[in-house]
Specification:
This protein folds into two domains: about 200 residues, Spore Coat Polysaccharide Biosynthesis Protein SpsA, Chain A; about 80 residues. Strand 1, helix 1 and strand 2 form a beta-alpha-beta unit. It is built from ten helices and eight strands.
């Protein structure tokens, strides 16, 4: 029987000093407590590791930045060595609810290999973040899925034995797409992933327009590469076509519903960047 003591919360970090205080506060409030909390400093240059250690969090180190895929591998393998059966990944820019560990434990009762939920901009700090929450959501919708295609990496938990069975995360995914890739490979290996929309973490990220556009490009490029490496139910052209439709609908909604040309320009630019990312990933898998 799996319990809170079997769960290791793992947080990959790269230059997250400004977000560490809120993260530490949220982790300190967890009730029940997980069996362990591990953080990884992936070659930061802003004192992230020192802040984590001062807060009493067990902190692993990469002397040089190796990327998100490698960081997740270092963390889950540390959990494996510690005898933990479930690794619950959280990004440094999210705050989980107090009962997060209990929700994770309950979510694995059906024998699934992974469990994920929603990463929501509950109180967006700017119009940029509000746009991201509406048109670039980090969730899979409002319906529960017992065989989800992937899990959003910001709040995804996995059975350690399932990760080991597919060799862990693909370290070619340095900043985006590792969650799509691991989901596809787990499913290809006969595992099932559960998506529970009632499992919600608060997204605390604050983006500038340029950062958001770049993120859209990288997300789509790496998502396409993951899709091509492990073909599933989504055809590459469907990804491109879907983003092209969003490049029309997002600016239109900004003009018609909110009469905001600034938001319309951001929506068009971000979605065009997404189309470009898909095409680059398709051409250079």
């Amino acid at each position: 029987m799996t319990g809170p003591a079997d769960v290791a919360i793992c947080v990959p970090c790269k230059d997250e000093a400004s977000r560490v205080p809120a993260l530490v506060a949220a982790l300190a409030a967890l009730d029940p407590r997980p069996g362990a909390i591990f953080a990884l400093d992936d070659g930061s240059s802003d004192g992230t590791a020192q802040l984590l250690r001062e807060a009493g969090i067990s902190t692993l180190m990469h002397a040089q930045n190796r990327g998100l895929g490698a960081g997740r591998n270092t963390l889950w393998r540390r959990a494996e060595r510690g005898g933990f059966s479930i690794v619950a990944f959280l990004d440094a820019d999210v705050s989980p609810p107090v009962d997060y560990v209990a929700q994770v434990v309950a979510g694995f009762e059906g024998g699934h290999a992974g469990l994920g939920g929603q990463n929501l901009d509950l109180d967006p700090a700017s119009w940029v973040d509000a746009w991201r929450g509406r048109f670039w959501p980090q969730h899979l919708g409002s319906e529960r899925l017992e065989d989800a295609p992937m899990l959003v990496g910001a709040c995804a938990s996995y059975r350690v034995e399932a990760l080991a069975s597919v060799g862990g995360f693909d370290e070619r995914h340095r900043s985006h797409g590792e969650d799509v890739d691991i989901g596809l490979r787990l499913r290809a290996g006969g595992h099932r992933l559960r998506y529970d929309p009632t499992l919600i973490v608060r997204h605390r990220r604050v983006d500038a327009p340029r950062d958001l556009v770049r993120s859209c490009y990288l997300h789509c490029r790496e998502g396409m590469r993951a899709t091509l490496r492990t073909p599933g139910e989504t055809a590459p052209q469907e990804l491109v076509q879907g983003m092209a439709r969003k490049a029309v609908s997002a600016p239109a909604a900004a003009i018609v519903k909110r009469r905001d040309p600034r938001e319309a320009a951001l929506g068009l630019t971000a979605c065009v960047a997404g189309v470009g990312g898909y095409l680059v990933g398709w051409a250079r898998p």
